[in-house]
Design brief:
- The structure is a single chain.
- By secondary structure, the chain is of the alpha/beta class.
- It is built from 13 helices and 9 strands.
- The strands form 3 sheets. Strands 2-5-8-1-9 form a 5-stranded parallel β-sheet. Strands 3-4 form a two-stranded antiparallel ribbon. The chain has a two-stranded antiparallel ribbon with strand order 6-7.
Length: 295
């Protein structure tokens, strides 16, 4: 079943994700983000949304289309990350005649050659590091990157370079920093993915019989009524994969869902009881899948 789903999601020839599993909202976001990336003069783009809701999926898909055709780099941020990870630095080399030489970081490499540079989990980066990125966020031909650490001093940003940052919304149980206002003001567009971009009922039907998928989606809708039990699309997908791999739905709930969103025994027990009610043998499965507005 998993192999069948992978064949459905990815085009057999190009190896690229297709959009037939997107919701109408997902397709709208794809088209609008793609339009923003093609805008002239080029401006940086922010994509905000909960973890596992499809931010990186959309950016990855667009990066595999013309004119970028896979010229793409992802830089995942974390606290304490040094600026050298972005711009590069002087590193030892295995040459007795040369002690150190300059090696580009991901940002510098993409600025030189062009392509889509995706800075992931931007809110986790230290403010001092983000301030060094202001230059490549400036619009149009004025963009350059200071390299005070290198012999060059600076690098001009190639015209085909595009800067995309994704991050979680402030608060809402995320521990990310608040993105500084000078950074936010530099975004030409900010897209908020406050709903899933994936057609979850259609996805779950690829993993399991339709009746089981209807029961699963009914539980998903119920879980999302509370912040304590809210599940993202990635959680739903992994739950479906667990069932496709032979786990009973209740066991899949125990192993794939409950450990992720709560440390409370009471909430965990409540979720398990919810799941039992949906999968009890004497309980009729819902007659239809929830609509896009319901899940």
């Amino acid at each position: 079943a998993i192999a069948a789903v992978q064949q459905h999601i990815f085009d057999a020839n190009a190896g690229e994700p297709t959009r037939d599993l997107f919701t109408s909202f997902g397709n709208k976001m794809y088209e609008d983000i793609e339009r923003a990336l093609h805008a002239k003069p080029p401006v940086p783009i922010g994509v905000e949304g909960p973890t596992g809701h499809g931010k990186s999926t959309i950016i990855d898909m667009i990066a595999n289309t013309a004119p970028w055709n896979g010229t793409y780099a992802i830089q995942a941020c974390h606290r304490g990350m040094d600026i050298n990870a972005f711009v590069g630095g002087m590193y030892p080399v295995p040459d007795p005649n040369v002690l150190v030489e300059w090696h580009d970081g991901k940002l510098t490499r993409m600025a030189r050659q062009g392509g889509i540079y995706h800075i992931e989990e931007m809110a986790n980066a230290d403010p001092d590091v983000l301030s060094r990125l202001h230059q490549v966020m400036d619009e149009g031909s004025r963009r350059f990157l200071d390299l005070v650490e290198s012999p060059e001093g600076s690098v001009s940003v190639e015209t085909n370079f595009r800067y995309v940052a994704s991050y979680n919304p402030p608060a809402k149980n995320y521990t990310s920093n608040k993105i500084p206002m000078p950074v936010m003001r530099r975004f030409g567009y900010i897209f908020r993915l406050d709903k899933t971009v994936v057609n979850e009922p259609k996805l779950m039907k690829l993993y399991m019989p339709e009746e089981t998928a209807r029961r699963c989606m009914a539980l998903v809708v119920e879980l999302r009524r509370s912040a304590d039990t809210w599940v993202c699309s990635r959680d739903v997908k992994l739950w479906g994969q667990a069932i496709a791999n032979g786990f009973e739905p209740l066991d899949a709930v125990r192993y794939s869902l409950i450990p992720k969103f709560t440390a409370s025994v009471d909430v965990a027990d409540s979720v398990l009881n919810m799941a039992r009610s949906h999968f009890a043998p004497n309980t009729l499965a819902p007659s239809s899948m929830p609509t896009e507005s319901e899940y």
